[in-house]
């Protein structure tokens, strides 16, 4: 600020360097001027005079006989020590008196006037302190430094001394009153008045400046500020909001209160930014959260059910954001949410499941999806898409997907219906869905699939229906099929979809084979039927050999044999089994009298075999048909019934198809369509298939469990029973949720087969 | 005593070619061989085996009541491999392993002593119990028919075997009643062995507090416990009600 005086100059009126009283009197005049009239300025001469006086005093030889030269060079240790102290003490006395005077003056002010007074005096005092600090630089540099180096307590540099004095003389007496004024002002603002908040800001700064570290005066702490400002501020805040919120909830709805609380919380955050120290941000937030939220959390939570029931999304979002501010605030919400979603899901299922037998797969899956979509949306919009809430949603969905009214009739019902719906979507049908929409729906299927516990059941049904789609080539699109399989693969892994993919491959290979066969036949110039063969790997397809004997018509068998030879030539040693029950074809009915263009009948191979008999003779007995075709009655009767029902054949006598009946070709056959589909499955067939599927599931599960147990034991050799249980559950859970009793049964089977042995202490051992 | 026994055999001077190196053991073998031949019915039994009828006679000779688990003590010694079938090797090796002099009277005494210890020596009882499964099943079968198993349980779980009962409950009766109601299948080795483990535990804690579904008990034991709880019987009742 001011350049240090150069040593060669002489200044008049400097006092006797040895006389402390004279020296101080000289100094005080200058200090007074700085303190009270700084705005008038200070001339260089006075400034220099004071500086020199201090210097001279500190370097005087009064105390010991060192020569000045030496004193100067050795830092004037002893002399400066003694004499500096006297000046330092005088300064303290002076400041104490000065501040006492201020305390007196402050008594005549209060509230905002007191604040104004405090701030004004603080500014004046601290500015002066800086100047004085510079004037006393010599003292600071030598005596003070020396004292501090020696570890003396309560010796400060001159500026800090000013602050210490302020704190001990004035602050202790007036800070409470100042703080009361601050709080009054803040309360005014909280009640909506406009206030001069820069005053508070300055008070805060002053309080912070007074935080001197008693251990190390070069450091500052927030202790003074925290004790004198933060503490009462937080206290007042709590009181204010406790009272306000209590009154508010008594007079208003919970929803209104949440809005109020939200506003208040925002305001307080704004307040920190506007004029408070950032140190208060956290504790203030905590205090507000406590009184505004935590203390009313019970009330809020009680309201949550009401909000859920009425879909008050915005209010739920508000409640979420409020309760997320307090520890463990959301847990009760999550469990209420979970229970609510589960209930909603169960109710939705109950609504559609009046008649489980006739329940449309689409209706069922849509009911499940609707609930999921609704509440997933809620989680996204109201609950910040939070992972915990998503978990609650998942838990609830898993519950109502796997255990609902529909599943009561059979726990496999959910995966079965889901697979059936997928079949409906992927099957060629009149209601062509757009590609994009189909893809979308398949994704939704996967949403439900994710919650299905018995994924193996889905797999079973899916693979059966996929087989049917492929064999009858009535899949709506290869792309959609592939997309679905890759979705399943993504969800459950390679093993889950392995067979499904192999089924696809077989179809592709068959296509090439057929082309090869056509070419082969052309080369030999043999006349062949317009036929298509599918070669399906036994291990991959959920198909079984026909359960009837069958003697195919000569036209068919000739072609079949030709193909067999062709195939065996290519792949020696492979065994072909004809799945007659899955074969189908078309025949032209040229005999009908009522039409010029002949009808085309789409028929099963069994039906074809029956119809071709009528080329020989236009009436046949049941027994003749049975003996020629070799079909047993289980296969023959339904085939005949459909032909009769469609009036392609006429039966005599009327009644049930069976031995003794006669059939005549109906030359009068009429149909609106030229192509007539007679290859329609019987209801009882699909029913039976379902039962079979369910039965194989139980058997497959046993095998799956046993192989998992053996796998685990093979790796571990010896294991505690309980550990084996949980490990097995872990491994199997992706496919289905095994029951403990089922696992134990499998362990017993393995014990009996001597794959495992019982060892001491509930241990099981692996026997190689 | 051993020395005296050896003396006795040496003085008898019986000699049969045998891989055994020691002379005294050779003589023991010969004596036991002779005893085996004595009980064998040359017309009905094969050369190195005796069948049921000869066995019954043997029991009579030993003074063993064929309706008690004493027979399992004997069958355990002679290493019976299935019901009513004892081999020469099992007989000779088995008796030799006991270290008892090869005479009917010594054998009789040994059997009586062992039978007495059944109800007090748990580990010996366990040995005999386990042997009963092997000795009691039909040849070529892996499991015991339920009827047979029940008869054997009757034998082992009542004196001179170890009575399966506690202060308030006749467990054997409960077990048999449960099997009659709920069990139709045969009894495999695991079920046989674990039934004893369960019996021993139940006698320590008749409230069945030791049981848990997750523990290693076979399914049939789980079902039995559930059955007991449903029926609110025995010790279980005291705890549950």
UniProtKB/TrEMBL annotation, chain A:
Single GO biological process annotation from the record: cell division
Transmembrane segment boundaries: none
Alphabetical list of InterPro entries matching this protein: Cullin, Cullin-like_AB, Cullin_CS, Cullin_homology, Cullin_homology_sf, Cullin_N, Cullin_neddylation_domain, Cullin_repeat-like_dom_sf
Record key words, sorted: Cell cycle, Cell division, Cytoplasm, Isopeptide bond, Ubl conjugation, Ubl conjugation pathway
Alphabetical list of Pfam families matching this protein: Cullin (PF00888), Cullin_AB (PF26557), Cullin_Nedd8 (PF10557)
GO cellular component: cytoplasm; SCF ubiquitin ligase complex
Pathway: Protein modification; protein ubiquitination
A molecular function (GO) term: ubiquitin protein ligase binding
Intracellular or extracellular location(s): Cytoplasm
Residue ranges annotated for the Cullin family profile domain, each copy included: 413-644
Family recorded in the similarity comment: Belongs to the cullin family.
Protein's UniProt name: Cullin-1
Organism in which the protein naturally occurs: Coniochaeta ligniaria NRRL 30616
Source species taxonomy: Eukaryota, Fungi, Dikarya, Ascomycota, Pezizomycotina
